[in-house]
User: Which sequence fits this backbone?
């Protein structure tokens, strides 16, 4: 009997694989995974209409070359909607009579099985559409009544009072701030896809697990093509590191996104016209350009969007490790001088709505100014009096650090970030304040406890020297 069951299982697997292999493959499948059971619900229909508009000419110029799919969760509906989007409208396709959000990881993987059964393609573009909070837990927002509330009301922790804005310290009166002070033990609530009905979201760890499975379902032996995040604050090195083994490219924002989010008409029109010729790198760049074009002439200038080559993320991590080692080497000779330089650079670095998230390129740039100044002072002192010369090892370490910073900025500009756009608010004189890659570095004027405990759990923190760096270089 066991032998019979084994043979039957093998035959069933072979049959399913043969069925899947007979399905015509499109050039691209774009899947927009819309978790709209939250305050963004009204914008989901707007974006679906934009997709329809972008595909209006598809019936004329393509023959099953593009699949544009939506999986949608809305408030107060016990249903997961699935649609095939065409130029004539949306067509319901295998919706599920159960709301999304109960188990975000499992639901994402089930979506991949739906795609594999009917909508296979040479290339896949996954878009996660919802609120996003980056790599850190929770986020609070100042409401119109002057009180600080969580961005999702269900994240307000039982037993903790709502904080009045008037009770904030002077340096905490920015429009939005993070919840390090009243964080609960529920460290799972961070990341993206916030569901107000289910009181859940997709954690960063679950995101990695889900897309590892999805990669093996849709492109075994390869990576998926693009992961896009139509959400706030997700363009972080730590997020890239969570996904670098699952996707080739990332598209997302360092800053808060405007509520209207991406412009799907501008995104899809070029894909319709030349689906067979567009590569993953091309489409990632198009997504950024479409986003920038939609806001360039508007009054909304507090925006960013970048496309990142995830194959370069490991090299950037290695470069950061070398940077940390060189800073530590310099600090062996002049600990107070180097610590002050690092803290000053951090405080002068551009940050985003969550002020714990800083622009990595800007940080390297500020470090370069200060380390360069130290080298200049040494050169001036040496010229005036040879007896003032510091240890040669210290000078060599400073110069090596300068070279590392130059190379790091070049790596970000020319290899890691393949396309970048930003509003006028991120241009100050000659400086560009949003360069495509954020990294976590809480205010060093606060104690090390400002580093949220959830940060210790992420892959980047465990595999790099960065956590030790941001722990060490703080004011005592």
Assistant:
């Amino acid at each position: 009997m066991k032998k019979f069951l084994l043979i039957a299982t093998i035959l069933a697997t072979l049959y399913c694989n043969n069925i899947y292999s007979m399905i015509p493959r499109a050039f691209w499948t774009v899947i927009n995974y819309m978790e709209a059971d939250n305050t963004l619900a009204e914008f989901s229909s707007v974006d679906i209409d934009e997709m329809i508009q972008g595909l209006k000419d598809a019936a004329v110029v393509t023959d099953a070359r593009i699949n544009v799919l939506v999986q949608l969760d809305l408030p107060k509906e016990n249903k997961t909607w699935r649609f095939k989007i065409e130029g004539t409208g949306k067509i319901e396709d295998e919706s599920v009579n159960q709301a999304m959000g109960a188990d975000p990881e499992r639901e994402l993987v089930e979506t991949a099985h739906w795609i594999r059964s009917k909508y296979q393609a040479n290339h896949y573009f996954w878009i996660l559409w919802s609120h996003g909070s980056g790599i850190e837990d929770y986020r609070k927002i100042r409401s119109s009544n002057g009180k600080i509330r969580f961005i999702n009301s269900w994240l307000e922790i039982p037993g903790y009072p709502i904080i009045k804005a008037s009770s904030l310290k002077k340096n905490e009166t920015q429009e939005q701030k993070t919840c390090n002070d009243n964080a609960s033990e529920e460290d799972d609530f961070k990341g993206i896809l916030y569901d107000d009905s289910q009181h859940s979201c997709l954690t960063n760890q679950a995101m990695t697990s889900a897309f590892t499975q999805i990669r093996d379902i849709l492109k075994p032996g390869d990576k998926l093509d693009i992961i896009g995040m139509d959400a706030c604050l997700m363009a972080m090195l730590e997020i890239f590191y969570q996904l670098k083994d699952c996707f080739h490219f990332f598209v997302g924002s360092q800053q808060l996104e405007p509520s209207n989010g991406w412009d799907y008409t501008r995104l899809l029109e070029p894909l319709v016209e030349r689906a067979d010729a567009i590569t993953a790198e091309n489409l990632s760049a198009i997504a950024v350009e479409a986003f920038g074009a939609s806001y360039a002439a508007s009054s909304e200038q507090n925006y960013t969007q970048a496309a990142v080559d995830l194959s370069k993320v490991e090299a950037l991590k290695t470069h950061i490790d070398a940077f940390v080692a060189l800073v530590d080497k310099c600090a062996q000779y002049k600990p107070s001088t180097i610590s002050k330089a690092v803290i000053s650079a951090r405080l002068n670095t551009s940050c985003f709505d969550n002020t714990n998230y800083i622009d990595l390129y800007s940080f390297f740039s500020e470090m370069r100014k200060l380390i360069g100044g130290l080298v200049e002072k040494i050169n001036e002192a040496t010229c005036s009096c040879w007896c003032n010369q510091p240890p040669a090892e210290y000078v060599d370490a400073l110069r090596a650090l300068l070279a590392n910073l130059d190379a790091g900025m070049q790596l970000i500009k020319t290899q890691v970030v393949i396309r970048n756009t930003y509003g006028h608010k991120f241009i100050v004189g000659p400086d560009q304040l949003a360069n495509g890659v954020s990294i976590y570095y809480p205010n060093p004027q606060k104690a090390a406890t400002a580093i949220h405990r959830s940060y210790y759990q992420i892959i980047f923190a465990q595999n790099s020297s960065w956590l030790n760096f941001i722990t060490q270089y703080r004011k005592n």
Observations:
- The chain has two domains: 26-133+194-312, 315-472.
- Residues 139-144, 147-189 have pLDDT under 50 and may be disordered.
- The CA atoms of residues 107 and 138 lie 22 Å apart.
